[in-house]
């Protein structure tokens, strides 16, 4: 069987067999973490539970969550479940405060990483023999090396460009003629805008597929990238703690219907943000993952803080569960004058107004005790940014849908900072400075 064929076998496994596989993998994982990770042994003992009491995935909800703070408390290597000499690679994700979160990989874990990224690339439209322009950063960040390994495994040629240096990226896109590009959605916007500015006809490039992730994005950004680079753009999701990119991926023929979670490796739950109770399929809450195959850094019920829903799609090609696009992170939620706000809500309003581009940012300030949000957003070419009526239109639409008054600053193209390659900061919260 070809490699793609063997992926298909697992991705189309009937649900009953998938559950049996998950149950078996979970049992082995629980035994391992109880035996080798003191943090988990203590957690089980304190809860009065033995690994054998958990009969399968259906009992997972009886166990406590693991939080990012637990990883920090066990910094750097105390959550590893294997001896140091079996560690083949170490990645780390830098938080906004304090020490980074450290993740170890055995050789076996790297094989899983390669496999899930290769499967994601196939779902995104890539094929062996194609070239991948990899503009995710190489380094401790999992994006660059993660995509690299998966593409190599699939039989692609990797161009390890890494992030930044847009001039060089454009030259490589033109001269090396890769069929697939991967980068953050905001950087794909930058590349599309630069092509336009320099008069490079995107149809003259050879790129057909864009695999975009590492930050939230919307259908408006998809449209902008697909039109601007003449590609089919899909969403790739992941986080270092669980493995890196390749935890879930959208199929290029099922765009907009959610991303498949590779649940033979990462078992997902969505739980209530306040109570931690599992929510029914389709309801929005915090995404939680249990890694059922990882050796070095296995995690039980890891609280990702990402907000989305999970559901089985009856029209899907594969049997695996899907997740909706991430709305934001629970800790990214802004509280403005008592109203909860995700920046993606403002983005959804912006994308419905045909005089605006999806290049925007929010500046949050506090005057005495009053929170203020300024929406800086670029108008489309040919639109007058000083047109008061347009500002007012946006302002009243935001007030009507979100329930908050915001200051509107319409801007000319190029005024809102662009991604230089990494994750783009859409919110500048000056209250915290
Ligand atoms: O961002 C891994 C990755 C690399 C994913 C390349 C996709 C592509 P971290 O740096 O640990 O890992 O950040 C993980 O980024 O919890 C989400 O909040 C956010 N995130 C990642 N992918 C998406 C996505 C990588 N497709 C954190 N949509 C996660 C929305 C995303 N948010």
What does this structure look like?
With 433 residues, this protein is of the alpha/beta class. It folds into two domains: 329 residues, Rossmann fold; 100 residues, ANL, C-terminal domain (GMP Synthetase, Chain A, domain 3). 32% of the residues lie in helices and 24% in strands. The strands form five sheets. It has a nine-stranded mixed beta sheet with strand order 4-3-5-6-7-8-9-14-13. It has a four-stranded antiparallel beta sheet with strand order 10-11-12-15. Helix 2 crosses helix 3, helix 5 crosses helix 6 and helix 8 runs parallel beside helix 9. Bound molecules: 5'-O-[hydroxy(phenylacetyl)phosphoryl]adenosine. 5'-O-[hydroxy(phenylacetyl)phosphoryl]adenosine binds next to helix 6, strand 7, strand 8 and strand 12.
